[in-house]
Amino acid sequence: MKKVLSDYSEWLRLGVAIVLMPVALISSGFINLPYVPMGLLLLMLVNWGMFRSEKMDFSAVGFDLKRRHMALIPLGLVMGLLAYFLCYGLGALIRGNELRLNPDVNWNEFFKKFWIVLPTTAVQDFLVAGYCYHKLIRLTNVQIATIVAGLCFVSMHDVWGGNIINNLFYASGLFAGYLMFSTALLRSGSIWLVIGLHWGNNFTNSFVITFKPTATSWLYLHGAMQVFSTWQAIGLLLAFWLNAVCVIVLIRMIWRKRRLNV
């Protein structure tokens, strides 16, 4: 009976965290301060409070100021940039596009966007790689927790706005991306690497390489095809997964054992 009550209280604690996190993000809209970074700060406060309720702190997910953890931000940033370059390059070949250099990059706008992307990606990382993910691993196991958190990560994105096949490919690519992030957390023992990876990936995806030339894009696609053949669509899906697999393999080569203590 005691075990049943204990298990119930632990699941209840997770439920409280799941409710408080969106409340924190919504509440930030009623504060007369910019959503970025107010939403992130409130979300971090919820994560910290939930860890403290179990006599833990942010060190449980490696979120501290230790140099070995802080160094993971630039490492993750570079890995995320290079991985997306690989993915985009393969995608361009499969689609029959041409990658062209943009001679009119606005560097002030470029660096402005570079820093704006950081807190927005960190918000998602604290939602799906923070307290809730850590707690779910302890209540179930790594595999179940990763699948659940990965599906939550997919649901945070607008994946149902167009062609159903494209939507499924997009959702699959997002799930592959989450597998990359979860591996980064589990192997390095620090959410800093997750934030760096996500930062590099999203910045490259949104601003560095684009379908049309923009103020921030270094490269853009020329001659983009509007209709893909079946084999091209399959090739694009494989390119998305190859992006994640390459990073996962590299992470597992650097950290051969799991360092996240759960």
Automatic annotation (TrEMBL):
Residues 115-203 form the CAAX prenyl protease 2/Lysostaphin resistance protein A-like domain. InterPro entries: Rce1/LyrA-like_dom. Keywords: Membrane, Transmembrane, Transmembrane helix. This is CAAX prenyl protease 2/Lysostaphin resistance protein A-like domain-containing protein. One of its GO terms (molecular function) is endopeptidase activity. The chain crosses the membrane at residues 12-29, 35-51, 72-94, 114-132, 168-186, 231-255. GO terms for biological process: CAAX-box protein maturation.
